[in-house]
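We modelled each protein-ligand pair independently. The example shown here corresponds to the zinc ion entry; the chain sequence is given first, followed by the ligand as SMILES.
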Amino acid sequence: MQTTSDFANLAEEVIARCRKLASFSEDAGGTRRTFLSAPMRDCHREIAGWLGSLGAQARVDAVGNLRGFYPGKSPGAPRILIGSHLDTVPNAGAFDGILGVVLAVGLLESLEGRKLPFGIEVIGFSEEEGVRFGVPFIGSRALVGRVDEELLARKDEHGVSVRKAIQDFGLNPNEISNSALSDDVLGYLEFHIEQGPVLDHLGRPLGVVEAIVGQNRLEFTFSGQANHAGTTPMNLRYDALAAAAEWIVAVEKLAQGTPGIVATVGFVEARPGATNVIAGEVRATLDIRHASDRARTEALEELIRQAESIAARRSVTVKWRTLLAQHAVAMEPFLTEQIEQAIQKAGCEPHRMASGAGHDAMILAEKIPAAMIFLRTPGGISHDPAESVHRDDVAKALECGRHLLTQLAASQEFLGRTCRA
Ligand SMILES: [Zn+2]
């Protein structure tokens, strides 16, 4: 498969497959597929069918990652991983994560049975978005040995723990250590939609990710005193919601005044949550990101100071806990350069960029060389049913992927890394 029209036809199929997977949903009216929910099973079955017909046997590991292995030329050949995640946010589009898995299947298809000096393991991570348990990357964490007892004990809104969710899906949480990366893995490649407006604005189909920004996610709890909204005078209140509101505006103001910082309070819950009751307790989340770890840490410390001072002035208390702390992660320079060349061979002008979103690639980068290719996101719209891709961009991504595989297969520098045994 080498011609432009071959890749265009395959791109058509990739898009149709993504749309089909989007129909496996927890919600009737839209796409929502969280960690080990029932529709994930349909998703696994469908992709395993595609993989099986290409000679890649698929299995589901103990944390629910779908893994299909396409063997290399010789039995002892090393492997590369290509994939992304299969879970979605609520009211999702059809391409975030899923496209990276389906593109990997498309790349196998484009090989038309040819074997390379390395095997290819297609991987569909079970959890990346953090929707069900408030903690992201459960799938890829298992590969680097970071699913611990604390994470397994974490509960969803129905009181079901991660451990129980795994058991309910028919998997054995005691076998999670078997999901870990084997010694024969050369690297990880992830295709993903950009989920932002940069490539669209530049008019370029593909980007190469140099680094993934660092981020913190925290939960703040403001505690005051719930009381009667009619009988409690304004000067004798300890209103947790008013304190949280003041802080939320401070978060926005600081981010607006600090170049490169993005900070968001995306969830607020007031208790008891009644029209005629002063809120006694408020939970609010904070998400803060920057490509520089130092700039991010300084901004976060300032926002914590401001929360404390606002709370003190209003005679309420504030506590916080960290849900996620992720430093900025560089993608591997050799692979990044190879991707840049492959993008050029596909006839596109590559664009080097940072990713403002976290991705499984940054988790895997802890242990193995990892790299990412971004696809232009029309209108920059993602995490929404309107999320889309251009067919020609998907064709270019496939073409780029094929060039990349050919380059890596011919690179002694790359293959020479394998001899770890
Ligand atoms: Zn994603």
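The mean pLDDT is 96.
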